[in-house]
Amino acid sequence: MEHLEMMSNPEVMSKQKESKWSNYGLRIVVNTASHPFDYAKILIQIGYEPIAPRPAKTLLGKPALKLPNIFEYVKHIKSVDGFSGLYTGLAPKLCGNLLSAIAAQKCTDYFKMPVSENLVFEEEETEENRKQMWLASMKSDLISHAAAMVVSHPFHVITIRMMAQFVGREAKYMGLFGSIKEIYQQNGVLGFFTGLVPRLLGDVLIVLLAGGLTYTINRYLVEEKELKVYTSATMNFIASSIMYPFHVVSSCMAVNNSGLEIGSPPYMPHYNNWLGCWADLGRHQQLKRGSSIFVRYYTGPYISVSGKLLPVTKDQTLYPTLKS
């Protein structure tokens, strides 16, 4: 009844619309500000290391190869392409994020259910009612996340391919419409959805894992209402860390066999599907690359530095030896 009264109140509806658009505006500002770091992270995920690693030691004193952190990576991109070069791929990224937000909001409005992170149970609620409300909110979350990802993924592919040109200095994916034409010519319609399955699967598993852990912890372990507010954010962070390899595989598949240097041997084999990509990265201990942005160590059998594949010995040194 209260929900119907709110829907019939023009003033409330107007405020809700203003809030939605202010949220969209905030997303654009945040995405623009963080874009250089996202750019560097994508290049790390697809396996490009333009700066030779330095011999170092871990906290436990073991020899290791220390890779440049995210700030050093951003500095390198700027030194090559200038300040404006840090925002390569920003336009399609913002288009995709805007479409994603609108699609998610439309789905949430359609189901008229709160998302799981905002779900608050009253003390008098029965256990059965709690479960039903949680299941309904999880269903809403899953559908809204899936819809948002599907409609925005073509722009995600365009963004990654525009960024990936940094490696081979190509100019194949230039501008939104030029990139659409190039992807269609290179891979057909399915090219716009390359890497969607691992990305979608990873996101669905994050929602399920984070939602399940949040419900269980808030129901059986945490009694204080003030602490329950932080449970969802914490569980989302943990779930995202566990499912991170899905994002690495998705990024690699987005450039694989794309006509770009980084998407072909010797940088990357041509994979038949994302499972083959997962298996190959797993063999070389590369499923977590880019997960740490401040302190990065290389642990694989070889590394690609400035277009050359160099083997790594057991004592964590490069052969032939590189000068930093």
TrEMBL record:
Keywords: Membrane, Mitochondrion, Mitochondrion outer membrane, Repeat, Transmembrane, Transmembrane helix, Transport. It comes from Dendroctonus ponderosae (Mountain pine beetle). It comes from the Eukaryota. Pfam families: Mito_carr. It is found in: Mitochondrion outer membrane. The lineage of its organism: Eukaryota, Metazoa, Ecdysozoa, Arthropoda, Hexapoda. Belongs to the mitochondrial carrier (TC 2.A.29) family. It is a multi-pass membrane protein. Signal peptide: none annotated. Its main location: mitochondrion. This is Mitochondrial carrier homolog 2. Solcar repeats lie at residues 132-220. One of its GO terms (cellular component) is mitochondrial outer membrane.
